[in-house]
Specification:
Blueprint lengths: L10 E5 L2 E5 L7 E6 L5 E10 L2 E6 L11 E8 L1 E3 L8 E3 L16 E3 L16 E2 L4 H4 L4 E2 L3 E6 L5 H11 L4 E9 L1 H13 L6 E7 L4 H22 L2 E7 L1 H14 L13 H9 L3 E2 L5 E9 L8 H9 L2 E6 L2 E2 L5 E2 L14 H23 L6 H18 L3 E2 L2 H15 L9 H9 L8 E2 L5
Parallel strand pairs: 8-14, 12-17, 12-18, 13-14, 13-15, 15-17
Antiparallel strand pairs: 1-2, 2-5, 3-4, 3-6, 4-5, 7-9, 10-11, 16-17, 18-19, 18-20, 21-22
Helix pairs in contact: 2-3, 4-5, 6-7, 8-9, 9-10
């Protein structure tokens, strides 16, 4: 570690928010205090080393900086406060509290980043996180230690969906990371967690759109490091919510351009896959401890799934949830780990109900096309149309809140209202048990999350 009194004054260049200084003995990722000639100070982080030329990303931006500035390296990378005291608190992307609460100066700090988990410490995922969102719990289960994005476009209610999952999920701790949020979105998440009584088990790291862009790159690392510690040291089941990872990738691109790196696909740097994978791979079910599950939002510019961010994300994660027209699309969504829990930790009829409901809803969409083109509809087509309408109202609306067992019962109720037993093409034993001999009175519960 370098002494605090060492100040480097040989500033070579200032390009945008990047300051280059000549120094030796510096580590990649180290923090530095930049003291401008007018007395202003700012924090910076080492983002590139080339011989004795050190490139620093200045947190507060390069505007007003002079080549007469002095740089004092702190000898350690970015750190984040970790203790049970951080639950219920809101932090900036710099790790500083922004909620007006008591200071945490005496609490222990831990460095962010570091390698992902040793594969020998990983457990095969076999547990489910219940979200009370039928389109997730019933059709694309969220499994502990899973990493899965919500693919969407600007204007869709993905933040409402993420907030609902945060307040309803049966995880022990929620770690929220906001990336480039406008103030309204930040306030929405914070007020929702507070009003729904979830803040006591939640810690928030928020980078707003007006904040320094380098802090946007630190938020996922802070959130994931804190989540990892809660899982390993406290044995907690931690759910990490990040929005929006496209803003994170755009920040990487902006810094790469400032560093004059050669861009790859659509201006993004060639290491985009590596940068995303390093964060997503922290999802883990730890042997003898807790788990970290990652659910993110990834917006697709122009609804283009081949855009570099969703394209690379799809190779890393175990499926995706597609949010289209305010609803989770059952055809575009996929959870590759759902087979680990369906029928094992869920009810015996889960698999058959899931497949039958999707098959019949697909038939309903085909019947809608026939109706739109004025073809003659069969009696079964009319049944499918009725079923399709009920399916959207009772399951696809993201405001619907149901436990998994209640959702399964509601599926059987919906099937009884639309079809005869011999039209279901399901196992006869399940039809006898749940369709013929059981009457249910379950109705979907719709709950409003403030918009």
């Amino acid at each position: 570690m370098l002494p605090d009194l060492v100040r480097h004054t040989h500033v070579l260049a200032i390009v945008g928010d990047i300051l280059k200084v000549r120094a030796s003995g510096i580590g990649f990722g180290d923090l530095a205090v930049i003291e401008n000639w007018d007395g202003r100070t700012s924090l910076g982080q080492v983002i590139e080393l080339e011989g004795d030329v050190v490139s620093l990303q200045v947190f507060s931006g390069g505007k007003g900086l002079s080549t007469r500035a002095k740089v004092r390296f702190l000898g350690h990378p970015m750190q984040v406060t970790y203790s049970p005291s951080i639950l219920g608190r809101v932090f900036r992307g710099s790790g500083v509290p922004m909620d007006g609460g008591p200071n945490l100066n005496n609490e222990p700090v831990i460095p962010i980043g570091g390698p992902s988990v040793n594969p020998k410490m990983r457990v095969v995922p076999k547990k489910m996180i219940h979200t009370r969102v039928p389109m997730i719990d019933l059709f694309n289960c969220l499994v502990e230690s899973q990493k899965i994005p919500i693919f969407s476009i600007a204007g869709e209610p993905y933040n409402r969906l993420l907030a609902r999952i945060g307040i309803q999920a049966d995880a022990d701790i929620i770690v929220f990371g906001g990336l480039g949020l406008i103030f309204d979105d930040y306030y929405f998440f914070r007020s929702t967690f507070e009003n729904e009584g979830s803040m006591g088990r939640t810690v928030m790291f928020v980078n707003q759109a007006s904040d320094p862009i380098v802090e946007r790159l630190l938020v996922p690392d802070m959130a994931l490091k804190v989540a990892e510690r809660f899982a390993v040291e406290e044995g907690k089941r931690v759910l990490v919510l990040l929005t929006d990872m496209t803003a994170y990738a755009d920040a990487l691109k902006e810094i790469g351009i400032a560093m004059e790196h050669v861009p790859s696909n659509r201006g993004y740097m060639g290491d985009l896959y590596t940068q995303l994978a390093q964060r997503y791979e922290r999802a883990c079910d730890f042997k003898g401890a807790g788990s970290v599950t990652i659910l993110t939002v990834t917006t697709m510019p122009g609804d283009d799934v081949t855009h570099p961010v969703p394209d690379n994300t799809g190779y890393i994660t175990e499926g995706q949830l597609y949010l289209h027209n305010g609803m989770i699309d059952p055809f575009g969504s996929l959870s590759r780990l759902k087979q680990q829990v369906i029928g094992h930790v869920t009810r015996e009829d889960h698999s058959q109900v899931m497949n039958t409901m999707i098959r019949l809803y697909s038939g309903a969409k085909e019947a809608e096309k026939k109706q739109a083109m004025a073809f003659e509809l069969s009696p079964f087509d009319n049944k499918l149309l009725k079923f399709g309408k009920l399916f959207v109202e009772r399951f696809m609306d993201i405001r619907v809140s149901l436990s998994l067992d209640d959702a399964l019962d509601l599926c059987w109720k919906t099937l009884r209202e639309c079809f005869e037993a011999d039209e279901l093409l399901m196992k006869q034993s399940l039809v006898d048990k749940y369709f013929i001999n059981k009457e249910t009175v379950v109705s979907p519960l719709t709950e409003e999350v403030p918009s």
